[in-house]
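User: Hey, my collaborator sent me this sequence without any context and asked if I could get a structure. I don't really work with proteins. Can you help?
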Amino acid sequence: MSKINWGIIGCGNVTEVKSGPAFNKVPNSSLVAVMRRDGAKAEDYAKRHGVPKWYNDARQLIQDPDVNAIYVATPPASHEEYALAALEAGKPVYVEKPFTLSQESAIRMSGAAAKYNTRLTVAHYRRGLQLFKKIKELLQQRVIGDIRFVSLQMLQPPQSDMIAKTEENWRLNPDISGGGLFHDLAPHQLDLMIWFFGKVKRAEGFSLNQAEAYQADDLVSGELLFDNNILFRGIWCFTVLPEESRDICEIVGSEGKISFSVFGDHYVLHQNGKEERTVFALPQHIQQPMIEEVVQYFMGTGPNPCTAQDGVDVMKIIDTFTGRG
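Assistant: No problem. I've predicted the 3D structure and written it out in C-alpha cell form, which is a compact way to encode the shape of the chain:
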C-alpha cells in the first residue's frame, strides 16, 4: 500500500477527539468512510469531520473499494465479528481495546489474521506515547538497577471523570464490555507491563462485586510473575470516596524507583533520597503516535506496534484475574 484509506466501524465518542481526526493528520493516511448503526449519527459525524462517505452497515463499509484498512471502534462485544469480516476481505485491522470479550475470542481473531495473511494491530496506544517510551528506555538502561517488583493501584469513585461518557453506559454491561470498568482501563495498564517486562509465567487474581451497584465486578486484584522473575501486584477498585482516588504505578528496583500514572503525563525517578520529575506534553489526539506506527506497519515500512498475540496475552490475564481463565 502506498496510502492507507481508513474506514471506521463505530464512530462514537471515543473517535471524536482521541482517534478519529488523527487518521487525516498522519502521513500517508486519510479517513474516507465511517459507519454507525444509526445512519443519522454516522452522517452527522461524516459532515462534521469532513469524511466523504458514511454507512449504517459495517459490511458495506468493509466492501467499499476505496477503503483499504479498517478501524474497529465499537464496544467490545462486536470486535470479533467485524475484525473477522475485515480480515476475510483482506483488509488490515486496527482494533480498539479491550481487544475483545475473552481470551478465546482473542485467539480466534489472532488465528484469522494468520489464516488470511492480513495484518492486525491492537489499540494499546499508550505504547506510542513518549512518556512510556522513555520509561521503557530507563528500564532497559537499568537506571534503577535490577527490577524487584511492580505495584499498581487504580482507585476511583463511582462517578469518575476518568471514564469516557457515553449515551448508554455500556462499560458496566458485561455482555457488551466483557466486564466492568476494570475491563475498560486495565488493558492499557496490563499491556504496558507486558511491553516493559515480557512474558508472564504465572497469573492469579480475585474479582468481586462488592457494592452491587451494577452487574459487573467493581473490585479486582491480581498478581503476575514474569519469566524474568519480576513480580507485579495490582488492585482496581471503583467504589472509593473521591478523596481516596489514586492512579499510581511504582516500579521498584535495586537502585531506585520509577513512579507514574498510566493515565497521566509524567514520571518521577526516585534515587538517593531525591526525586526527579519529568513531564511530557500529551498529543491532542492521544492515539495519533500509535496510529502513525500502525500506518507504517500496514504499509510494510515498520513493525507491528502491538500484535494480536499481545492482545491475546492481555485478555488471558484479564480472564484469570476475573475468574474466567
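In plain terms: The mean pLDDT is 96. You can pass these C-alpha cells on to your collaborator as they are.
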